[in-house]
Write a sequence for this structure.
């Protein structure tokens, strides 16, 4: 695979002629839509027909809701080691709550593709948000924990899951150790049956990082408690924050460099965002709210409005601005250039693999680049 940056005057035909590849290949791999307009600065993945030079073995996971388009799921499964089904909740008494929609087709399709389906456990309250009171009730009550573990084992066996991913956020600081104990107890309970237990970690850069996202997550304890961890290395740019890259490489690297001092690299998966944000300017803290956009959608938008895509060399992320209805917009997203930079962190630090939040939107060029870079285990 090669990466080509679109210049003024480029067309798909000219680029195909330059590389001596079929026009249809560029269109398909990059999900271009008729009449195949391109944005200046757009990164295209070009299949040159050479043998892939993938050498680094990596686990690749992706989160998905049960309302995923089945064709998107089936194409993406070809590149995944694990499919994280999002999500299962639980009551204050420890009873397991399945997703509202049936997830059976996800499990069936994953198995058919040789991908391990993983049950994602989340502490959502009635409002659909992470509930730290529910977490506290669970991790500090032996009876509730036992009930939940029994329910997990029954569901894993009945539905054919291969493991559990514990995705708890906004854990109270006083529950830091009880939460780590819960993860360890879950692993001890399920491991004899062959189930894998992973845990998602907020992107910390120090032991004493302040904030509700961070204080309840102890990297050392959780790294020892779980079979593997996922660093949620995204959301620097987020819905209510100022315009910036979702996963700037300099910030991502800081998290990785801290994490490997507390957790064996062979246990660490790097979080990869499969989305971007569109902000309306000027940004006003407390009032502005960015709109989520898919990476392919962002490039199509840039082409349709005639915007030039720029590339931030510090964040190693693409962005552009455009005008609509008298307002200026700023869009940050991921392309094959920014993803290639993130991929390079795995061999550089000896990481286990990566996990995508999330795979609801198909980004074919990402998966082709990944398959060209890694031996997917």
């Amino acid at each position: 695979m090669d990466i080509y940056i679109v210049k003024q005057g480029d067309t798909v035909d000219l680029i195909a002629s330059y590389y001596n590849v079929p026009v249809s290949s560029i269109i398909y791999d990059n999900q271009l839509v008729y009449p195949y307009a391109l944005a200046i600065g757009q990164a295209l993945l070009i299949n040159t027909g050479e043998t892939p030079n993938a050498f680094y073995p990596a686990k690749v996971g992706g989160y998905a809701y049960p309302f995923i388009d089945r064709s998107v799921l089936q194409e993406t499964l070809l590149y995944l080691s694990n499919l994280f089904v999002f999500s299962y909740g639980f009551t204050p008494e420890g009873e397991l709550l399945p997703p509202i929609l049936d997830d059976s087709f996800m499990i069936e399709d994953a198995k058919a593709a040789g991908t391990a389906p993983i049950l994602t456990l989340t502490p959502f309250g009635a409002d659909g948000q992470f509930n730290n009171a529910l977490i506290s009730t669970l991790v500090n009550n032996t009876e509730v924990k036992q009930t939940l573990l029994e329910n997990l084992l029954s569901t894993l066996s009945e539905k054919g899951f291969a493991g559990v991913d514990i995705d708890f956020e906004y854990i109270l600081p006083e529950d830091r150790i009880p939460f780590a104990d819960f993860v360890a107890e879950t692993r001890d309970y399920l491991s004899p049956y062959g189930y894998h237990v992973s845990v998602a970690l907020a992107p910390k850069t120090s032991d004493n990082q302040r904030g509700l996202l961070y204080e309840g997550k102890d990297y050392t304890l959780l790294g020892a408690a779980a079979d593997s961890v996922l660093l949620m290395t995204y959301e620097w740019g987020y819905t209510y924050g100022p315009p910036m890259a979702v996963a700037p490489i300099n910030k991502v690297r800081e998290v990785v460099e801290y994490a490997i001092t507390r957790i064996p690299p062979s246990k660490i998966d790097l979080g990869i965002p499969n989305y971007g944000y569109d902000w309306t300017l000027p940004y006003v803290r407390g009032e502005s709210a960015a709109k989520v956009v898919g990476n392919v959608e962002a490039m199509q938008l840039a082409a349709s409005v005639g915007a030039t895509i720029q590339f931030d060399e510090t964040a190693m992320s693409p962005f552009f601005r455009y005008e609509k209805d008298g307002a200026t917009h700023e869009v940050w997203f991921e392309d094959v250039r920014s993803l290639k930079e993130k991929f390079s962190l795995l061999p550089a630090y000896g990481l286990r693999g990566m996990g995508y939040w999330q795979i609801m939107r198909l980004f074919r060029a990402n998966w082709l680049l990944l398959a060209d870079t890694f031996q997917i285990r």
Notes: The first strand starts at residue 2 and ends at 5. Residues 7 and 40 are 5 Å apart (CA to CA). The chain has two domains: 1-51, 56-274+337-376.
